[in-house]
Design brief:
Elements lengths: L1 E7 L2 E8 L13 E10 L3 E2 L8 E15 L2 E6 L2 E5 L5 E5 L5 E9 L1 E5 L8 E5 L4 H17 L4 H20 L2 E4 L4 H16 L6 H8 L3 H12 L3 H19 L4 H7 L5 H12 L3 H8 L3
Antiparallel strand pairs: 1-2, 3-9, 4-8, 5-6, 5-7, 5-8, 5-9, 7-11, 10-12
Helix pairs in contact: 1-2, 3-5, 3-6
């Protein structure tokens, strides 16, 4: 900050304070608004769980309803703002004879958006009653611009979105991480989430190829760059993590555990387990049993 003074023969008659603005990196990835919609319900309804490759933000404008995450329901009410991270299975549910109205936006380029304690859940819910006029101003202005499609409305919507996101981060101490919109990254995140949910099943490179419509060589190469490990080894890693939990917390036979976590034979399980942990499943159980 600099203070500038202008003088006359009679002395100081004006002072000006100038504040320098730090330079912005305009090459940095910026969130992109994909859509914005208004929804109104006054009856009970159940939609199906679904996922997106982008973040969704809901703001409840009237009434209350339910947000379902992996079949677990969370109540949401007026002025609640809900942020659902990419690839989180979710849906909204209405309640019979109860008004439920909300605005929802799809935002691309946001790779992680939540409070730290909500990381595992993949969703953040916070009430913005105190700041409702501020939040609604941005949301309704974006809606108006999208409906009227006046000159340069897309640029205006993008700018409003960025101001809104900054305000959300300030008001609720929400973390925002973004990265360049990259199709390879999207495919790798999809593969990672699929393996996380299905690692006990028989997953092959052919399975992942059908899932992403990519050839197997490209999948292995892209996933190694993304995760530092091949997708099949990542699947084995997930199986072994589950096996460790079962070995230390249950009395199941080792052969049963091998089958439950997805290995086709006990010998292959034992071999993979010892390679990863430098100990046998039986010894691991003895050393880590919680019973």
């Amino acid at each position: 900050m600099k203070t500038l003074y202008n003088y006359t023969k009679r002395g100081v008659y004006m002072s000006t304070q100038r504040f320098q603005i730090d330079q912005v990196d305009f090459n940095k990835a910026r969130p992109k608004l994909l859509y914005i919609t208004e929804s109104k319900f006054d009856h009970e309804w159940n939609s199906t769980l679904h996922t997106h490759l982008y973040t969704e933000i809901f703001y409840v404008t009237k009434g209350h309803g339910l947000l379902s995450l992996d079949n677990k329901n969370y109540p949401v009410k007026e002025d609640d703002l809900v942020i659902v991270n990419p690839l989180i299975s979710h849906t909204e549910r209405g309640i019979e004879n109860v008004n439920f109205e909300y605005i929802v936006m799809g935002i691309e380029g946001v790779t992680y958006f939540s409070k730290e304690e909500d990381e595992e859940q993949g969703c953040s819910i916070a009430n913005y009653y105190e700041y409702k006029h501020e939040v609604l101003f941005y949301l309704k202005t974006i809606l108006f611009e999208v409906k009227t499609k006046d000159t340069e409305y897309q640029s205006l919507c993008q700018n409003l979105l960025e101001v809104l996101l900054i305000n959300l981060m300030r008001r609720a101490n929400i973390n925002l991480k973004s990265s360049p919109i990259n199709k390879a990254n999207k495919d790798c995140v999809l593969i990672e989430k699929y393996i996380d949910a299905h690692f006990k099943e028989d997953i092959t490179l052919d399975t992942l190829s059908e899932l992403t419509f990519l050839n197997k060589y490209h999948i292995v190469h892209a996933f190694k760059q993304y995760k530092g490990i091949s997708p099949i080894n990542y699947m084995i890693q997930k199986r072994l993590e589950e096996a460790k939990l079962l070995l230390s917390t249950t009395n199941l036979q080792i052969s049963e555990i091998a089958y439950i976590v997805g290995f086709t034979s006990q010998s292959y399980f034992a071999q993979a387990f010892k390679k990863a942990t430098l100990t046998s499943p039986l010894q691991y159980r003895k050393d880590n049993s919680h019973s």
